[in-house]
Write a structure and sequence with these properties.
Layout: H1 2-28, H2 40-60, H3 64-86, H4 101-116, E1 120-139, E2 142-158, E3 164-167, E4 173-184, E5 193-197
Antiparallel strand pairs: 1-2, 2-3, 2-4, 4-5
Length: about 200
């Protein structure tokens, strides 16, 4: 009889343990590694962390190779903008996307005044002699790069009767400019814009 009671006790304990296990499983759930989708809050945190890391990489990776690639584009942008501003239609067309709103408005106003005087420009762009990064600085998400340009052009301004008002259509002129280009490092758009003209 004693043995029977012992067996009954073991069975009862096993039943109690099983009941407790099932209750815990119901409350805590069953986990077998990482399962299910991350919560929206967790995804947002990860997104912010990735943005911070991306910004750091953009700033840290603006090394000699990146600067070389940037200057190739800056030379093309410089020629495009100079030529667009100095051609004979008195309109900003080709370089519109290369200018921020402030510079675009300044150029448009200058061209309107030229047009109102009945003047138009002629230009032959000889080439960029040098383009050197003076400094690059990141403010928040915005990376600004200041470039010193030296270029050669042939240019003059004529009136409505095609008489020369200024410049010399036969003479090569050397020009010096310091421009600031900028882009948002968080933007998917890789293009830079001219945001300031220092000289």
């Amino acid at each position: 009889m004693n043995y029977s009671f012992e067996y009954i006790d073991i069975i009862l304990l096993a039943m109690i343990a099983g009941f407790i296990f099932l209750r815990l499983r119901g409350i805590l759930g069953k986990r077998t590694g990482f399962e299910g989708k991350a919560s929206p809050q967790f995804k947002e945190v990860l997104k912010k962390i990735n943005k911070v890391e991306k910004n750091k990489k953009v700033e840290e990776n603006f090394d000699d190779e990146a600067q070389g690639e940037f200057l190739k584009g800056a030379r093309i942008a410089y020629e495009t903008i100079i030529t667009d501003f100095s051609d004979n239609d008195n309109k900003i067309v080709e370089s519109k996307n290369l200018l921020n709103n402030k510079i675009h408005d300044q150029f448009s106003q200058a061209l309107k005044e030229r047009n109102d005087r009945g003047h138009f420009a002629e230009i032959t762009f000889i080439g960029v002699n040098s383009a050197i990064i003076k400094e690059h600085k990141k403010i928040g998400n915005i990376l600004n790069v200041t470039v010193d340009f030296i270029a050669e052009v042939i240019t003059c301004i004529r009136d409505k009767d095609k008489k020369i008002v200024s410049g010399d259509p036969e003479k090569i002129k050397k020009i010096y400019d310091t421009w600031v280009f900028s882009r948002d490092t968080t933007s998917a758009n890789p293009n830079w814009q001219l945001v300031n003209i220092l000289t």
